[in-house]
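can u pls check wat happens w/ zinc ion
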Amino acid sequence: MYNNIGDKIKAVAKTVGIVGIVISIIIGIFTYAIIGSLIGGGGVIIGLAIMVGGSIASWMGTWILYSWGDIVDNVQQINETLTKRDLETKPQSSRLLQSAKSSQKAKAPAKWTCPKCGEQNNANAHYCINCFTEKP
Ligand SMILES: [Zn+2]
């Protein structure tokens, strides 16, 4: 269901970009027509500004969406590669042992000793609670 979600995001990015540019042009033409009929001129610049500005804005928005799709794609690929390698190289028993070990670690995180004052700090603390020395 969530396979190739990166590709889907990229496809959406392209569609959004094109739709955004089309809408900007339409709004620009309407603005030009309305202002033109109201004041009889001067609408060209505003209409063009909306067309160009809106198109550039949608185009740039597309980059962000597209790069997000690219990131999702890459993460998925890395994940698949790692999972495959894990399955190929490690026998079932050692994998089970390792997952047991890591869940144990999660329950009781190892403490670290401050190199400056010797204070025992929690594993998730980035600085010593006693002297604020950074975790080594
Ligand atoms: Zn300390």
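The radius of gyration is 28 Å.
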